[in-house]
Amino acid sequence: MTNIIQPLLHLRSRVLPQAVLFTVTALLVPRMASAQDPQPEPRVEVSSTEALKQALDGIKALKGLKGAERQAALKAAAESFEVLFDDLASSPDSLARASFEAGECRRRLGELEAAEANFTRCLQAEEVGRYAERALFQRASMRRRTKRFEEAIADYRQAASVRPESARAHESRLWIGRCLLTAGKLEEACTAFRAALEATAESVRRIEASDRLAGAWIQRGDLVAAKEALDSVEAEVASVLEAGGKLGERVQKALDRRSSVKKLRKEADDRNDSAGEAARLERDRARRVAGR
Fold first, then answer.
1. Is 0.85 topped by the overall pTM?
2. Burial letters for 174-212: b for 16+ Cβ neighbours within 10 Å, e otherwise?
């Protein structure tokens, strides 16, 4: 268990507040009341760069922890990054890294406001670069989860523009549509999903986008447009399925995952049932009129 917090303990001389050290040691290190307890290690001064490295080592030690133990370690890890912000101010790359990792810790703790603040600090340190796309995506998620959809959409748009061909850009474009759908803006959601579909040539991504687009059309009540969205992409990937191989397997799994197919079938059945019931009622009415 000692190896879990050792990287954090080395920071105590200049970066970790005593309260943090007390919390970590109280929760993660069994205390043995004994006269033979070892003496405290001597204080060792470390540079902010070394402190960041040790904090990152502490993140690796989270693997396998669960429950309260994991929560306490995540909190300590977040604080081990946050306490370095001032010292790293002159090093944008390091500050961006520390801010992003702190944001991730807070996100995992469910502390959305603190996580968003850390992702914002990351973006202030590095508007473009290694962490920009991820920080934008995660900040958008924090804003979406607090129902600030316009702000979230703005971040998702920016995230999609960093590396337009990346998987995260594709996810960002889908989330734009999903935010609009949740906000009740069905027409705009259809436009966003169509844009996501047109932005990629990759088969699995096109299946995912067409599934979302079809779902939006179903919510708008246009079953014909929904079926067209699904059918057009199915026709595109037919040759990939015939070729088989790993790509064929991935495409088939993506097709099987579509939720809009069942929704479309159910809506169509409901409409047919309604139409049949309406016809029956009309026939009954006609017979009653004729019998008068």
1. no
2. bbbbbbbbeeeebebbbbbbbebbebbeebbbbbbbbbb
- What radius of gyration, in Å, describes the C-alpha atoms of the chain? 27
Return the structure tokens found at 59: 């993140």
149 near 183, Cβ under 8 Å? yes
Of 170, 135, 174, give the one whose Cα is nearest residue 155: 135
Here the tokens at position 257 are 């995952």
| Token pair of 7 as six digits | 């990287």
Torsion of CA 92, 96, 102, 108, to 10 degrees: 180
Condensed to tens digits (0 to 9), the pLDDT of residues 104-149 reads: 999 999 999 999 999 999 999 988 788 999 999 999 999 999 999 9
Secondary structure of 174-203 in HEC code, one letter for each residue: HHHHHHHHHCCCHHHHHHHHHHHHHCCCCH
